[in-house]
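mannose-1-phosphate guanylyltransferase structure dump, as promised
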Amino acid sequence: MSPDKPISPVVLCGGSGTRLWPLSRKAWPKQFVPLIGGKSLLELTLERLRHLNTEVTCVASDEHRFFVQEAGAKAGVTGKQLLEPVGRNTAAAMACAALTADPEALLLFAPSDHHVPDAKLFAETVRKGMPAALAGYIVTFGVVPTFPSTAYGYIQPGPALPDDQGRQVARFIEKPPADVAQQLLLEGGHLWNAGIFLVQAKTLLEALRKYAPDILEACERAASDSQCDGSFQRLDRSAFEQCRSESIDYAVLEKHDRVAVIPFAGTWSDVGSWNAVAGLHEADADGNRVSGKGFAAQATNTFIHGQTRPVVALGTSDLVIVDTQDALLVASANCVESVKDVVARLTQEGFTEATEHRRVARPWGAYDSVDSGGRFQVKHLTVKPGAKLSLQMHHHRAEHWVVVSGTARVTRGEDILMVHENESVYIPMGTTHRLENPGKIMLEVIEVQSGSYLGEDDIVRFEDTYGRLPAAEQKKG
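structure tokens r here:
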């Protein structure tokens, strides 16, 4: 088989990103949040994979499908989305991707939330793994370590493969304690496990059938009974829910005898903690790093992420400060790995801020819940050029829309109205309505809701551009 065979990238878009709370939350995980230069990690990943192929398959949850679709459009790639009804870890996600691909396809599995600045070097390194993958190996890529990390797993390379095709993997090492990590670095030769794999679809399926037949069988049923909706392919819920949750490392790689590793010498980060995010920003003379509206005065080794308002760190040392519209994190730099534990506690105690943002993304744009009271709620809507909300009706609330930027086309009952900046329109309770942006700039609207019940489930959809069924997603717009 020719080494010129095209590589088919598959991006694994799962993960809740709780270690980067409060910026990343279950409803809007870190891979979708603009984090580096105004771009999300997923968008940067897709841009990087574009050097290998402009057609990319993404495996994502149904809840996040429009985030993935938008990132793909921004990155200039096309391809299908394989939608998981529930999360079942990487073994199931990779199995379903392989089952829905050509058996001879050379699949590159890549996480959506890693940062690799040198896209050209990344593509060159991946291509080095092609001969081994075409020879029946599962090829993984190990990052040359730069410090004794306790947050990453390690790979110990074994004997060299023929014709400079990489090395066999001798063993995988779990995330080690500090003293073991230091020893691995001193010994040399060990690599960080980046969780990136190059393998033919048939090779992966054969390995799964040998080491995890129950996972493969459940995924076969989920894939065979899947339903296609445009670029979306929805796996069967009942079959997929029966699949056990396990990583590909545990399910296959640690048992398989044909795993190869190729070293990657470039910069890499899984952006797995606030310290990792801080490391993406340049430090001043005192070791302070700032993102957004942060100011460090008489401070040392302090990271500030300020989204909307000035955040001042005065006389601080070794702190991480992350400010969002509805939650604030102040943590010792030595404790950031415990953020996920705090999020679990907040969730248990019923704080919606643990999992949901005040700003909620939608396929047509977003809304920000500005204020609310017993019988009113105020939202700031932003509608993309050419986008429109569903044709809908509310039983228990009326709405008043004020256009602050752009021009809105409003359907109200039988009427079609053009509403310009500094103009408003009233939508009575029980009236069919729709908001559209016919212009070429972002439409911004202040929405004031009033009524006896303002819950997001008070909506009846009659028509929707984005294929959302009324019973499947009872959300605004």
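The CA atoms of residues 156 and 190 lie 5 Å apart.
lmk if u need the other ones
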